[in-house]
Fold these 4 entries.
Entry 1:
Amino acid sequence: MAHFLLEKNIKSLSCYSGTDYYAQAERMHPLIIIFLTLFGVAVLLWLMFGINWRSSRNYERKHRWLHARMQAEDTEALQRLLFSNSLTMRVEQRFRPLTMLLARGGRPSVSLSTPQIITSGKDKYNMLMSDLICAKESIHMEYFHFGIDKSSRKIRQVLMAKARQGVKVRFINENIANWPIPNLYFRSMRKAGVEVVNFSDSRFSLLRFLMTLSYRDHRKIVVIDNRIGYTGGMNINDHYFYQWRDTHLRLTGEAVASLQYAFLDTWLAAGGQLYSAVNSFFFHLDKPSSGQSLGTLTQVTPDDPTSPEPVLLTAYEWILNHAQSYVWFQSPYIAPPPSLISAMRNAAQRGVDVRVMVPEHCDTAIMRPINKSYYAELTEAGVQLYVRSGEFMHSKTIVCDDYLSCVGSANLDYRSFGIDYEINTFFYDRAVALRQKQLFVDDLPICHLLSSAEVRTTPWQRLMRHLAPIV
């Protein structure tokens, strides 16, 4: 019996010897490559999207550079400028808890500004160019997209010219989102004296770089001479300046200090250097709020994926939960988390007029089915969903109860609420809210109000919807 089993095993082994063995290996070779490739892709995706970075430890690590500078220097006046709650009592009482929510985690509190709402890309371009040309001391710029087209090159030329004149020009390059732009484009800026740092910092280990590779700097910030600020939805690109419908802000007043703070925080975290005291970057330190009774109550709120909580998502839900009359949103992309859809449903069921305006056509093919996959769920939740025709609408705005309004960089989607670095500006002011409300109304004539009977979700849209958290 033992002899029989041994002979059988020898025969079984012989079938893998010689030519047969190598033929079998050749047949298995492509399968092994496919398996290893899929395994590698799965590991990479897990590293990029499967790790939740939201913790106080990661938040402190990300922001330690600026915190260390502020602790090492005399910044008592700066602390008062950015984080004092002295203006909170001027906010309408029922919205005061929102101001505290937005200020959590060391974010700026309420300050004063003189805002100018910009809805024309051409107007933004002309105003920005004029302010850049007049800059005397410093220019700080941080954009998700900084193009290589005609208008972008003109702005780049001004930045280079001002740097040659001795103006301190600092530029944060979102190097992953702008990867098609050759390094020579930014190398020329550096040669002219512009300080350029890449947002995705490779100073740390390759593993850490890959784990944070999906996090994009979606903010739009300009601070000129520490006195003038720009923020909102418009990037630097011909599309925004001449083709699309968008909403942006030009700010003056103390709220510019909050924009400056957000920029410097990112600048240091990305590897940039500051060669003077932090206080020198804040013009309004010598102009206390008590001497400026006039202005719009403003709160600039940055958010990022290392924050212990998604502050903008929490704020949107708070607004919906406490609205009394209406909440109107504009957003080019909609892939809201379930908690936000639930808040919309609850508000609508209380009789609140909840509206969301989206463009009929998206600028990217992948977002078109994702947007449409949420139409049925939103309309069934009681949301009045307006689809805007005409030019692509890129605005990210909120207006609520003729008092609260917001212009920012955050979309109503997973990426803005959990993955990207965003910055929104909230206003507690009736006049600003009514202006934003009128802008929404002005867009309605070219909108179509969808009914639940008109929309259905296709299998393709349901499949694409699963990509919403990562695209």
Entry 2:
Amino acid sequence: MFKALDTTVQGLHHIAIVVPSLAEARKIYVDVLGMRAGTVEHVEDQNVNVLVCYAGAQRIELIEPAGPDSPVSKFLAKRGGGLHHLAYRVTSVALSLEALKKAGLRLIDEKPRPGANGTRVAFVHPSAANGVLTELVEDPHP
């Protein structure tokens, strides 16, 4: 599916899980499972609060809707909490979007937008990825 990105995909960036409450989720992921956690960040563009937890080097992003107008609120109401998307680290979200569009894949985002922790992100429609919502993530450059 992502053959057009062979030279830019660097690996899995994170797994995102929708939760109704970050405070309640923290009790499980941090207090019980022992994951390290960062601070909660509000992502204005999606109206969500994000808590990044670390299982070793792997990032798990817990996502809580910050209001009823958040797309995650709709997801939570329709499907309940659980796996939301897989995110792949890419060298350039803009170039990756161009390659995917050229390959004919259905995109949610036509251009990068701000993500959590200073990243640039874009989403690929689940229909283009075997039913999995896919995020492309470009980490901030030093």
Entry 3:
Amino acid sequence: MHIVCSDMEGVFTPEIWINVAEKTGIEELRLTTRDISDYDVLMQRRLSILKENNIRLKEITEVIGRMELLPGAREYLDWLRERVPVIIVSDTYTQFAGPLMEKLGWPTLFCHTLTVDANDIITGYNLRQKDAKKKTVEAMRALKYSIISVGDSYNDISMLQTADAGILFNPPENVIEEFPQFPVTTDYDALKGEISKVLKG
């Protein structure tokens, strides 16, 4: 029995922080785990920028509410769920994900939470657990499932390495070069093909 553990941003949805950067005009908020492999370094910088610019959670969720899924994402997810259970394993936050999960038809999502003060300023982030993507795959494998993992960024690599099969979807060149062991797909048809090969195994 297989389970697919998939990243969210870059696979089903655009990058939330890039959209926030475009809305606020703060170029540094465009940095993601495609650029910086240390997630804590990245998040601490983001939180500092939000505080310096007095950007509230409501402003971010308004941006997210206007975001659309990547073209074909919902159809791909529907195709996938007809064939295999799917868990979206993301480094996003429950306070961010709602509008996007609704557009995806409320799939199972494992993610983190934010600490927000009385003034609606994000003051911290709370990891569900350290290296949660990898730990999710380990837990599912301990239950005797075979895991197919899909991701695009540095923070997905440990999940892909721990899975029975790891697949990169639209990754940047630096990730492709550093991790040549994973098949690379650039559209949903190719991704379906790689997943189908594993399922037929």
Entry 4:
Amino acid sequence: MYMNKTKYNSTLIWSLVGLFAGGFPSIFWFSILMAMLITGDLEVPVLVISLFFFVLSVVFIVLGIRGLMKIFAVNKCLQAFENDPDGFIQMDKILNGKKPGCGRERRILDAVEKGFFERVTYDRKYRMFELSDRIQNKNDYLNRFIGINCPNCGNALKVKVGMTVFCNKCGQEVLG
């Protein structure tokens, strides 16, 4: 409900592609490198090419793992959003005992900036998410939020007065 499915699915797909594109080739290039080292048959061009492609495969694996870690962090947020009755969720509740500034928080904030969430604003000062569709009183909602357009891409946004949000299309920081 609060997920930008396009961002979520493309990150998931590219993460899996990275894992598979790096996983199998890394085993192949690592076995060639080991065979060359064990046999002592060290031909410099083959060694350099094998090493290059092995490192490239490892980079694909690392990028795939990072993408999956972001997906897991987004899922943690989505669970908290769905189970929250009042529409205000502290970051600490999502972090579940982890210290502020930890890797999970950085991945969550990166997901906010990259537009993984819809109908969600994040207040950095108070470290709180606000779900705009859970506001109980329509007048409170209208008094606390203003409609503006993103200065970068023109996307229509609802922003809490005085809050900084990120455009869910381009990621531009917008002050309400």
